[in-house]
Write a structure and sequence with these properties.
The chain is mainly alpha-helical and 207 residues long. Helices cover 59% and strands 6% of the residues. The protein is elongated, with a radius of gyration of 18 Å. 25% of the residues are buried.
Length: 207
């Protein structure tokens, strides 16, 4: 049976060997989380962005990554019903300022881009997705023009900031929340592994 993977390179067992009280284990912990977020999200968005007509799919992946990263930051293990809260909180980060400096703008992005792309495969209302713009976000009439390349760069910058903060032993809040999130992920993987034991056909990799 294939090992229970929590990222392309690591399994749940790799995580379970770590102890958050041991400073020597933290570089490995950060490496595992980086591999998960990069290997399952960022890597594919980077590749897609090379195609001229990939704006929708790149923004869709980035929206997933934004919510996922905010869950890691806050230690959220059940995000049901909290997508809007998490998305807006993430967009309030320094990498997205001053473009997303109001609650109304962040709310509009959530409704028209995040939900539009993930639920209807379209940008709703008067949002335009472009490249090579002078600003990340621009008000055009009563709509918005968003630069997908600049948005993706801000996502990548937010990830770098997060990992840099995790390497700081003084950020016990982020470290505790990370451990809560990863322990939950590993427990879910263990439960899925039990299902595969009951049904060997379920263990066949499909994705």
């Amino acid at each position: 049976m294939e090992p229970l993977r929590i990222s392309p390179k690591y399994t749940a067992k790799d995580w379970e060997k770590l102890d958050k009280a041991k400073p020597a284990d933290w570089p490995k912990a950060v490496k595992i989380v980086r591999d998960r977020l990069h290997g399952r999200f960022l890597h594919f968005a980077d590749k897609c962005l090379k195609d001229d007509f990939s704006g929708f799919v790149v923004l869709a992946i980035d929206c997933l990554l934004a919510e996922t990263l905010q869950q890691f930051i806050d230690g959220v293990t059940n995000g049901h019903g909290r997508s809007k809260e998490l998305s807006k909180k993430f967009l309030g980060g320094s990498r997205f300022q001053p473009s997303f400096n109001t609650d109304d703008i962040r709310g509009a992005f959530y409704s028209d881009i995040r939900c539009g792309l993930l639920h209807q495969a379209e940008a709703k209302n008067k949002w335009l997705i472009r490249r090579k713009q002078k600003a990340l976000l621009k008000l055009v009439g009563d709509g918005y023009l968003i630069d997908v390349e600049r948005f993706h760069t801000a996502i990548k910058g937010s990830l770098r900031d997060y990992f840099a903060d995790l390497c700081n032993p003084a950020r016990t809040d982020l470290r505790d929340n990370l451990w809560t999130k990863m322990d939950h992920i590993c427990s879910v993987r263990a439960a899925r592994g039990a299902m595969e034991t009951l049904d060997p056909a379920a263990a066949t990799p499909t994705a």
